[in-house]
Design a protein that fits this description.
This protein is of the alpha+beta class. The chain has two domains: 54 residues, Arc Repressor Mutant, subunit A (Orthogonal Bundle); 96 residues, Alpha-Beta Plaits. 54% of the residues lie in helices and 16% in strands. Strands 3-1-2-5 form a four-stranded antiparallel beta sheet. A two-stranded parallel ribbon has the order 4-6. Strand 1 and strand 2 form a beta hairpin. It is found in: Cytoplasm.
Length: 194
Amino acid sequence: MLAPILSARMCAMSGHSHWSTVKRDKASADAKRSQIFSKLSRAITVAARMGGVDPDSNANLRLAVDKAKEANMPKDNIERAINKGLGVASDGQSYEEVIYEGYGPSGAAFIVKAVTDNKNRTVAEIRSMFSRLGGSLGGAGSTSYIFGQDPENPSFTVEVGDPETAGKLERLHEELDAHDDVQEVYSNFSVVVN
């Protein structure tokens, strides 16, 4: 008589372990952290290749290392990224910085700065994001005149009042920013609430 009661109790408890919840949360946090570390590592590699390994004389490297430290990136990873920029990397990959320009719905301009080891793959993925959300990838110089020397302050903004178009523009900005190769995304749209 005792055995059926115990087995029913055990069945009711399955799937509610503390470890399964912790494991799921940890996996999610680790994936986000890994993506951030990858972006930071690429930025450090390119900065070291372009301006040398001395952070005192290379402002881009100093900024990239400071960002990595803020994100609690291990010192070994930072040093490995700097060595990769010098060509001392053991995996044979070389990264380069590229800039893509394009237009979203309603003519909103975008500049996307990326660091990639495969320009063909990256441009295809970014072009796909633009076209899927109603935009198009432009050629070099197609939107840079809007942003000038300071991409954070465009010369003019496109005001979007339509909620559907605003949603597409925001999704495009978020998807571009979430891409592993993309370092920075700048746009000139602003959502107007009616």
